[in-house]
Amino acid sequence: MTEDDLNGRLRIAVVIGSVRRTRLADPLAAWLKRELTAIDWIDLDMIDLASVSLPMHEMQPGGAAASPIAGRLADADGFVFLTPEYNHSFPASVKNVIDWHFTEWAYKPVAFVGYGGSGGVRAIEQLRTVFPELRATTVRESVLLPMAWEHLDADGSFVPPPGTVRALHATMNELRTWARALRSLRVSDLAARA
């Protein structure tokens, strides 16, 4: 891998955590996709857990290679979790996708966009304790969207309140820093094993 490869575009997977039938995640994911597609260093992959089959009874220790999204997660240089806060925590669908996989998260950064009454802060803080066990690094910055349902226009599109886009870009800039550093680490580690 060359210096240009290390400093070039990064593959960022956005994991949409809600699997509810009627969900606030849809307009929020559409907004995220618009914002992140416009960032020149990102190759975006939107992974919607509502359309991925990860049955809990098929989970295996150490992750399941048969996962329909394992390859997409493995190819990512970093992750953004769009997570709701349900009952002061993150939803079971988020824990399920984390537990289904193992090596796919290792030595990669994870950022969060949370939503709910308090902006998903409790869900995010709990996720920060989960990812280090998988050798992933969570970035300090995050985006909190308290009462996001109050920021939908007449068409149901999310209209971010003041400061939200700035918070997203600060989060993504930190994610980029970690993603480049950790990609370099993963490449040098693979080279050392060869």
Automatic annotation (TrEMBL):
NADPH-dependent FMN reductase-like domain mapped to chain residues: 11-149
Coiled-coil spans are: none
A GO molecular function for this record? oxidoreductase activity
An example of a Gene Ontology cellular component annotation for this protein is: cytosol
Pfam families recorded:
FMN_red
Protein name from the UniProt record = NADPH-dependent oxidoreductase
What is the originating organism of this protein? Streptomyces cyaneochromogenes
